[in-house]
Amino acid sequence: MSSNETAADKAGTVHVPDKIITMKENFAYAAGDMASVFYFKVFSSFLMFFYTDIIGIEAAIIGTMLWVTRVFDAFTDPMMGVICDRTDTPEGKFRPWLRWMILPFAVSGVLIFTVPELDDTWTIVYVYATYSLAMLAYTAINIPYGALMGVMTPHSAERTVLSSFRFYGSFSANLVVQATILYMVAGLGGAEDGSYTQQGYILTMSIYGICAGFLFLGTFYGTKERVQPPKGQEMNVKKDLAQLFKNKPWVSLIFVGIGTVMWIAMRDAAQLYYFKYYVVADMESAARFTKLMTWYNVLGSLGTIAGVYFTKHFTDLFRGKKNAFFSLTVLSAILGTGFFLCGPGDILLMFTIGIGLSIITGPLMPLFWSMIADTADYSEWKFGRRFTGLTFSAGTFSMKLGWAVGPALAAYSLSYYGYEDNVLQSARTIEGLRLMMSFFPAALAAIAAVVVLSYGINRKMEVQMEEELLARKEAEGTVES
Fold first, then answer.
1. The CA-based dihedral angle spanning residues 382, 368, 403, 351, taken in that order and rounded to the nearest 10 degrees
2. Residue 222 has what pLDDT?
3. Looking at the whole model, is its pTM more than 0.90?
4. What angle do CA 167, 173, 177 make, to 5 degrees?
5. How far from each other are the two terminal CA atoms of the chain, in whole angstroms?
6. Diameter of the chain measured on Cα atoms
7. In this structure, are residues 59 and 415 in contact, taking their beta carbons and an 8 Å threshold?
8. DSSP helix/strand/coil, 442
9. Cα torsion at 442, 443, 444, 447 (round to 10°)?
10. What helix, strand, coil percent values describe the chain, rounded to 5?
11. What angle do helix axes 364-383 and 120-152 make, rounded to 10 degrees?
12. 38, 177 contact by CB (below 8 A)
């Protein structure tokens, strides 16, 4: 044995360097969420508007469709996680799904907007069917994508960086969508007055779908799976689920995710109506609405990207992920109420509040997914079993429930306050729009902030889990460098 060889080397222990992920791999992983957001941002912020103002479906009907289909789809997430955990190919458990599902993902998104001329009943049937299909395709590609982060590196700090890069990609795509969609829909729609048409939406989504396909291929070819389950672990769905619900930090995060996405989704769904009917309030001024809405969204997206950049700084400032998440959520709730104070002409104040909110909320999703990865570590550390796909799928499950309830609440609120499409709104409806942009999401954010206090993993525990798990994996050889 040489002087540099330790007893651990002689025993065959695998040593894992402190830094595994290269900058190139960070960007490759980011490409996957950029691909997802090309569709998901459209679905979350523009689809309800498309259904009500372009196709002419009542807001209450769309509200019911959103929560019924998304709640059903959310329960498919754990099933997909189980399937991923049991996938075994030379390319890994999660990466192959990114390649297999590109075409179904791209096509299903375009079909949502290809609503044929049918009677009211069959139009609703078509909307339910195509939206459900698109959500299933999204599940089949996004669950393995999210879980991939948990097996790319065993280091919690690197996963936080990966999560930040993921949301650089996400919010960059968000920026592109916000900057281009309304202009593309108007430009490709064929209407002389620049108004929005169904044709414009279909062609725009086709372009976004092609871009998403190439980005997912970049993630597939540019990443590597390194972390394996403990040797000898048997795959048992019943045991996995039972143990998952014993993971108290994970349970807390599920409710945190639902609450967080609910308040973000509600405001996202409301803002188009808020600007069209409250701020612009001119049915003939499509160009002004497009310009104002685009600039608001673009500046907000830039603010979000800035917020993601400061994720680690906020984590250090507030001494841990949990504290940072709580503090930023409370600040978001307080600042968001400012929209109620804005008059139709207070454009600068609206933009200032919007940009401030974007900066504050930017770190929330990177923190959430990094915390989800830590709960996968917690399960292995405390119970000796690791099921990354199932753990991450449950995180996506909570996201989808939030996206189901948030826009549905917005749609029901529109109906309750007497909304009618493409006409000047009553004073009561305007009041509802102002509440949907301010106090309603603020109340949901406050609930999410309270729930996150029950998350039991602090900074000290993160370090302890990482050190002990790394020692085990080095001894077992279940992690690659």
1. 170
2. 97
3. no
4. 140
5. 23
6. 85
7. yes
8. helix
9. 120
10. 75, 0, 20
11. 60
12. yes
Let me know if 427 is exposed, middle or buried by CB neighbors in 10 A (0-12, 13-18, 19+). Answer: exposed
Matching residue, tokens 């006409």: 423
> Hey, how many other C-beta atoms are within 10 angstroms of the C-beta on 23?
9
Which region, left, alpha or beta, applies to residue 454 given φ > 0 means left and ψ of -120 to 50 means alpha? Answer: alpha
Q: How many CB atoms lie within 10 A of CB 37?
A: 25
pLDDT in tens, 415-441: 999 999 889 999 999 999 999 999 999
- Pick out the chain residues at pLDDT < 50: 1-15
Q: What is the pLDDT of residues 186-197, one digit of tens each?
A: 999 988 777 899
Burial class (CB in 10 A: 0-12, 13-18, 19+), 1: exposed
Which pLDDT score, from 0 to 100, does residue 16 have? 56
If you write DSSP's letter for every residue of 288-326 in order, what string do you get?
HHHHHHHHHHHHHHHHHHHHHHTHHHHHHHTTSHHHHHH
Q: Read off the pLDDT of residues 271-287 as tens digits, 9 standing for 90 and up.
A: 999 999 999 987 667 78
Q: What is the pLDDT of residue 240?
A: 79
Would you say 230 and 472 are in contact if contact means Cβ atoms under 8 Å apart?
yes
Strand partners, 89: 92
Contact (CB, 8 A) for 270 and 324? no
